[in-house]
Amino acid sequence: MHTKHKTIILLFTIIVNIAGAAPIARIMKSEGNVLIKRMGKSTFTIPGKPGLGINNGDAIKVGEEGFTVAIFIDDKSVIKIREKTQFEFIESSNSRTLDVEQGTMFFDIKKEGRTKTFRVETPVSVASVKGTDFAVVSSPAGIDQVFCATGQLDVQNLVSGQSVVIGAGQKAISNAMGNVMELPFTPDDYPSDPEGVQPEIETEQEPESEPEQPQQQRQESTDQETQEEPEEEPAEEPDTEEDQEQEQMESDDTPSQPQPSKPEPKKPFGMGLGVGSVTIDGVLYNQVALRPEINIGKIGIGLDLVFYIDNKGNIREDDWDFKSDPSRIFDKILFLRWGEESDPFWVKFGSLDNVTLGYGGILSGYSNMMEFPEVRRIGLNTGVNIAGIGGQLFMSNMKDFSRGGTLLGLRGTYKVTDSFPLTVGLNFITDMNQFSGLKDIDEDLYPDIFDDFPNDENYYNDTDGDGVPDIHPGVKTPEEGWDIDADGDNIYDEDDPELVLKGVPFSLSDNKSSVTGLAFDVGYPLLKSKVFSLDVYTEFNFLNFPEVGAPDSLFYRPNYSGKSFSVPGLRASLFNFLQLSYEFRIKDGYFVPQFFDQSYDINRVVPEYIDGSAIVKTKDMTLFADSSMKEGLVGHFGSISADAFGFGSLYGSYTNMTSETDTVNSFVAALTLNAERIPKLSEATAFYQRTNDKNPFDFENPSVNTVMGYRLGYELGKGISVIWDYRQFYRYTGALNDDGTGKLEPVVQTTIETSFNF
Which of 105, 182, 417, 669 qualifies as a FRET site for 589, CA 20 to 30 Å off? Predict the structure, then answer.
């Protein structure tokens, strides 16, 4: 019995020692959003407060605007962790490893008192340290940069096995393609320390046996500060703390998704000045624009204070007439934001770009900026992510509510559990009134194509085209009086028994055309690692187009609907720098994949002129005029996006749908270059889109589904650039070609301005 009791006591002691193991490091300093995840836990729930002990197997996540400093208890080595960084502590009997998922870190590794090898490992590389002052920048795109200030580092690429040894003043660049190279760097290249400490970069590599005096001097104050913390302080009680903080920090338990590499945090304040020209309503104006931008924490404000000056030197006053239309003040807001989409709560107001709901079967890549600045839309995109439940609300243009309604989307998601991360999503998307897309300058609800007085909200009809309104419309008498000969037959109206005036034109108050979409999706992550991840999903989509008007009216559309299935859907990510997707699609009836896409506002509703008379067609009427779009189609969709190792990003997608008699194809491509890597280039983007067409690669013969553009900036000097902004799409003229097809005309929007950034 005595032996049995001794065994029980021994086992109990071992368990207690393991459970209450002494911390290996402590938090010295913490600012902003810093969270700890204890070993064996699935979420980051414990605030990283100064003095908190870090145990073997714990992980640290530093959010935006965050910063923290940790010190190892045994050898007093110090690590500084910048924003958007996540890593894990891994200790063994003879090694110490920091397993970095992404981020920026600074290291001051001591030689004295250290008995273990020190390694920094990322998904791409591993750096072995013998005692040095260095920094590591690991991008989600699969690019690592290791900067050596003092000492020596051995950097190995885990993909190819290649390695280099770098000394003071050198850096190693390692990427997901297996390449690793050694380059010199300047002090300006070294990542910025949030505390403002600049490394003392050695000009010549010193022998490893010599003490690194500058490093020791910098550490003296740190050691003194650390001595105030008792090394033998009992470890924190992680389970108790987690229970206390769980409800408060639950919002950070959000699904992890591959994200493209993000730029460095924006400066708190910036000022842009643009000088150039722009065409609005067919008139060429000189443009002077002030664009201040404020970024403080999660808050972002961007303004667009633009003055348009005609060739006579007159300022376009309509843009600043707040008295007659107070809502114009919203046109001066480029964007307002709070947080990012990964936060528990986020919102953006104003300009919207690349909005997608769910897997994008109905709404994908939408932008409300395609006609900017001629048309200024005020959008809203907001959402929540709390404990596995997510929600999103999207509106394309809040101004459209006064015109019958806007494009609106709602999405809700539910994740079962962290251990069984099956996620279910539901989308509701509707364009409440497609006719809201018709231009109406005077906002009298009579679109310009039907309004004989498009610049005067009081009048809209002129039978004989003499510039004097007919007697029956309008709300006040013009100075010239009512038209006394409305039909132009030289007989006064009061004496003309055969007078026939034009009917009341097409009005937004009396006409409404809507479209509604529903989507249901289920997704599950099959594989998830730092190197490779794979998600599988299925999506069901439904579109309905209600009946509008009468067969003999200016606009008539019968009721029709359609649906589609994506089974299966696959999304893969390699080192977070390459994303691939594939869907097998089945379409039935009147359905268009990605109906609400980047160019939706351009072809949402378009006017056509036939024999001098104007009619309107919605996007669906244009698409379904092609009989192949009404058929059942089966085919494939694939996309690829990649980060070209910091030089730029590329996106492309292709859809091939076939029936027994026809084929429908779509192609979308976008390219963005990193201007910082290319001399004299301040920005460079280009895009091309041609969807639901026979041959999207027939560049010589564009269609109404073709949209293209680019934005190019050439740097004249520091902070001074010339910007070319070009967009082109096509619309029907109402005339016919010799082969009976509708004649198209290009619509070109070009802006050239000189930009000054302060």
Answer: 669
Buried b (16+ CB within 10 A) or exposed e, 275-312: ebebebeeeebbbbbebbbebeebebbbbbebebeeee
- The chain-wide mean pLDDT, for the chain, equals 81
> With helix as H, strand as E and coil as C, how does 294-337 read?
EEECCEEEEECEEEEECCCCCECHHHHCCCCCHHHHHHHEEEEE
Element (H, E) at 7: helix 2-19
Q: Can you give the residue ranges of every domain in the chain?
A: 23-206+214-227, 266-338, 339-437+509-757, 452-498
Torsion angle defined by CA atoms of residues 20, 21, 27 and 32, in that order, rounded to the nearest 10 degrees: -50
Phi/psi at 217 (nearest 5 deg)? -60, -45
Regions of the chain short of the pLDDT cut 50: 1-20, 204-265
CATH architecture of residue range(s) 23-206+214-227: Sandwich (2.60)
State how far the Cα of 714 lies from the Cα of 725, in Å rounded to an integer.
12
Per-residue b/e over 615-639, b at no fewer than 16 CB within 10 Å?
A: bbbbbbbbbbeeebbbbebebebeb
pTM of the model: 0.67
pLDDT digits (tens, 9 = 90+) for 377-395: 999 999 998 888 999 999 9
pLDDT value, residue 193: 84
Two tokens, residue 501: 């005036």
| CATH (residue range 339-437+509-757) | 2.40.160
Which among 732, 729, 713 has a CA at the least distance from the CA of 598? 729
Specify the DSSP element, H or E, that contains 429: strand 423-431
